UniProtKB/TrEMBL annotation:
Family: Belongs to the phycobilisome linker protein family.
The name this protein goes by in its record: Phycobiliprotein ApcE
Keywords for this protein: Antenna complex, Lyase, Membrane, Phycobilisome, Thylakoid
Higher taxonomy: Bacteria, Bacillati, Cyanobacteriota, Cyanophyceae, Oscillatoriophycideae
UniProt source species: Planktothrix pseudagardhii
EC number: 4.-.-.-
Length: 265
């Protein structure tokens, strides 16, 4: 989780005070503390900060282009989800709307991560909210709509990766999908999915068990539901490919004749 209270340093802060501030920066930007092996990657950056050679803003911009931040939040993330996390880490809020998301996306695509984070940290909003000596933190601000408030509440309580790395909270809210746990499901389908019994209950079959219409109906429902759910999750796999894989799996439980009945449509 990110910070929810301001942590401020001074130009003449002691090395011990700066060590404390470093830990708070990591909590805000990485959403956790560093492992010892990771800290070795940042020795030069930490040394300059503790000696007072660089300030918080310089440290933030440098940290954002180091492998540790990129591996955690950029390399396995969609651009839009990365932008959402960057706003969370460096502005202490969720993106306001589609227009802002696309504005930041244009900078990210054209100029890269370093340019995007520099725009955030050098912005007038950052200066007014945090100045030069306060670490960015999750803070209250004026919301333009109820939707923006809801999205900020969700993102503010979200652990890294809790709702996946593909769809930002803003789109989840707009599309009425729930990505809690990392897998996205339409809210209207959640109750349907929950009604499907566990697969071991549905497929209580052995090689000599006769397939009944009830078996076929239950299996068909499972296949269609799983296919529909997986097709929502952004990946280079088509629903047809998913269904083909599921057919192969079903053949492990039923005969070819019964499988043909199941998938004849």
């Amino acid at each position: 989780m990110t910070l929810t209270q301001p942590v401020t340093t001074r130009h003449d802060a002691s090395p011990e005070e700066r060590e404390f501030v470093l830990k708070q920066i990591y909590q805000q930007v990485l959403e956790r503390q560093l492992y010892e092996s990771e800290r070795k990657q940042l020795v030069d950056l930490e040394k300059d900060f503790i000696k007072g050679k660089i300030g918080i803003r310089h440290f933030l911009k440098s940290l954002a282009v180091r492998p540790i931040y990129l591996e955690l939040f950029y390399e396995n993330s969609s651009n839009m989800k990365f932008i959402e996390n960057a706003c969370k880490h460096f502005l202490g809020r969720a993106p306001k709307n589609n227009e802002e998301l696309h504005e930041w996306d244009d900078i990210l695509v054209r100029h890269g991560v370093g340019a995007l984070v520099s725009e955030l940290v050098d912005s007038e909003e950052y200066r007014k909210s945090f100045g030069y000596f306060t670490i960015p933190y999750w803070h209250e601000h004026r919301f333009e709509s109820a939707g923006e408030y809801i999205e900020n509440e969700k993102l503010g309580h979200e652990h890294a990766g809790q709702r996946g790395w593909a769809i930002p909270t803003h789109y989840q809210h707009e599309l009425h999908i729930d990505c809690d746990g990392g897998t996205c499901v339409r809210e209207e389908d959640k109750s349907k999915v929950q009604e499907v019994p566990p697969i071991e209950e549905v497929l209580d079959l052995s090689t000599d068990t006769k397939m009944t219409p009830k078996h076929i109906q239950r299996l068909s429902l499972c296949v269609k539901e799983i296919t529909e759910i997986l097709s929502l999750y952004p990946q280079p796999v088509t629903p047809k490919e998913i269904e083909t894989d599921l057919q192969q799996k079903v053949l492990e439980y039923v005969s070819i004749t019964n499988a043909n009945l199941l998938f004849k449509n």
